[in-house]
Amino acid sequence: MTFYPGFDIQASEHPMGFTYGSGVFGPTLELRHLDAIRPSLLDPACDGPDPVYAIAMDVGTDEAKDDLVRRNLLYGAVTYAAGSLGVEPVRSQGHVHAVSKSCGSSTGELYEIWSGRAVILMQESDSDDPGRCFAVEAGPGQLVVVPPGWAHATISADRTQPLTFGAWCVRDFGFDYTGVRAHGGLAWFARLGSGTQIDWLRNPAYPISRDLDIHPARDYPDLGLESGVPVYSQYLKDPDRMMWVPQPDLRSWAGFVP
What positions does the domain Glucose-6-phosphate isomerase prokaryote occupy (predicted)? Predict the structure, then answer.
């Protein structure tokens, strides 16, 4: 992978998935097939890679496993296939994090890109008024934060190569697809242009139209995160800095800009 994530994990294409080095744990892979995400695609009948992506929820080093469980933190690894889904980039279908019993609220998520190019598409709500909408572009080593309660999807911005990333979330996570599926997707669709260009189309299923704020990934000193340092290494150095993930009430999210 282009960016070393702080522990010995490698993505593979054939078959799609992950391998783990000495002292690293990982689960049985989950595969997301094309039929599972068709309802949220611009063209539900399109062709594309199948499986679309592979997920390893709960990866890390043996030395930290008990601490991750105690803190209710979960680190997942995801790798997307190269290619496209019809006229769209390879992407997830979009969801909101369900309310976790451990904290009584929806929780946020922290992405770290390991290889490829990503766009994290997110909006404040999955209701008829999506609120503020953002498309955050990120490359290897960059971080993107999705605030609690926001609908979001991860898009591969370069069809010529796989996208691989890590994602921090709460251990008792759950996904709520209700609002996204009711609108046939998020408030904006990404359509492939020439080269690596992405064109953005409004989703007419949302009665209230909102502009899309497109910008590159930023640093997050406001969350105590360091730029260019593997976020897993940051967790090992100071585990408390990650506690806003399972305990979102530790900070205010009003007006947060991803």
Answer: 49-188
pTM metric for this prediction: 0.96
Least confident range of 80-84, 174-178, 191-195, 243-247: 191-195
- Work out the average pLDDT over 16-37: 95
Burial class, 87, CB count within 10 angstroms (exposed 0-12 / middle 13-18 / buried 19+): middle
| Beta pairing partners, 118 | 138, 156
Q: Return the amino acid letter for 107.
A: T
CB environment 213-238: b (16+ within 10 A), e (fewer)? eeeebbebeebebbeeebbbebbbee
Structure tokens at 198: 């992405």
Contacts of 252 (CB under 8 A, 6+ apart): none
Q: What is the DSSP string of the chain?
A: --S--SS-EEEEETTEEEEE-TTEE----EEE-HHHHGGGSSSTT----SS-EEEEES-EEGGGHHHHHHHTEEEEEEEEPSSEETTEESB---BEEPPBTTTTB---EEEEEEES-EEEEEES-SSSS--SEEEEEE-TT-EEEE-TT-EEEEEES-TTS-EEEEEEEETT--EE-HHHHHTTS-SEEEEE-STT-EEEEE-TT-SS---EEEEE----GGGTPPTTS-HHHHHHH-GGGGTTTT-GGGS--TT---
- CATH assignment, 9-238: 2.60.120.10
